[in-house]
Design brief:
single chain; 254 residues; alpha/beta; seven-stranded mixed β-sheet; two-stranded antiparallel sheet; 8 helices; 9 strands; 32% helix; 17% strand; globular; disordered N terminus
Length: 254
């Protein structure tokens, strides 16, 4: 397969990020995380072949959350491989031709903590202000319309990853904001279940905590959502799909 490497050095994505720099960030971070995922640990990927049937834009991946950045990085690795026609495994060569229209929703507070998170914004961060918590304290503020507009722009441009619980703590009730977005934008909603990352990495996902772990990433079929149901019912359906509903409390996460 011939890999085309030419990229307009001045071209930008929908958020104004230079695509040449974005590709470099994805590739360099990808190289570091690939070694951590597939050499220091091992990864079992299930259902990635479903990605081949998804449209190029208007797809929302909803997932449970175990670390700030390792979860997202692992999904990027799978998406890069899928772009190169490889599923359920990730060859290192896929970093030469990464998927560029991927975005992830992250708290703006998190993305400002240090140089590396700020740099990682170039990989496709859609930073939003939390409405319920900031600086370790509970708050109550309205959703910023600009945040909604940015998420909408991401979904209209490509694939977007979001974490409905808004926290790395397991089995926390999901936020209704995810349902409101789905109602308004009607994306293809793909549930993702990840496991093992909390054991292998620290909370940020930047540092290796232990090696030899099995990391699991499972992609499920797109959800068939009935919009005649209430928001709580739709949110419950999502939480069951990502295995974070109360009935899963009996099954401990690794």
């Amino acid at each position: 397969m011939k890999i085309r490497m030419t990229l307009n050095p001045f071209k930008k994505d929908s958020f104004g990020y230079n695509l040449l720099i974005k590709r470099s960030v994805i590739s360099v971070f990808g190289l570091v995380t690939w070694y951590r995922f597939f050499r220091l640990n091992s990864v079992q990927i299930v259902g990635a072949d479903k990605l081949k049937d998804l449209p190029e834009k208007g797809v929302l991946f909803v997932s449970n959350h175990q670390t700030y950045f390792a979860d997202v990085s692992a999904m990027y690795q799978v998406f890069n491989a899928a772009k190169n026609g490889v599923y359920n495994r990730v060859p290192l060569s896929s970093l030469l031709r990464p998927k560029m229209n991927i975005f992830f929703v992250a708290a703006s507070e998190t993305m400002k903590k240090g140089f590396l998170p700020k740099l990682m914004q170039y990989a496709g961060s859609v930073s939003i202000k939390r409405t319920w918590r900031e600086a370790g304290k509970n708050i109550n503020r309205s959703v910023d319309p600009k945040d909604i507009a940015n998420i909408k722009m991401a979904m209209e441009t490509g694939w977007t990853i979001t974490f409905p619980q808004g926290t790395t703590r397991p089995f926390v009730k999901g936020r209704r904001g995810t349902v409101h977005l789905i109602r308004e934008l009607n994306p293809v909603v793909v549930p993702v279940v990840i496991n093992g990352f909390r054991r292998a990495f620290d909370k940020t996902g930047m540092f290796v905590k232990s090696t030899g772990n099995l990391l699991n990433i499972t992609f499920k079929d797109p959800l068939d959502l009935d919009f005649s149901k209430g928001n709580d019912d739709l949110l419950d359906q999502i939480m069951v799909a990502i295995e974070q509903a109360p009935e899963f409390l009996k099954i401990k996460e690794e």
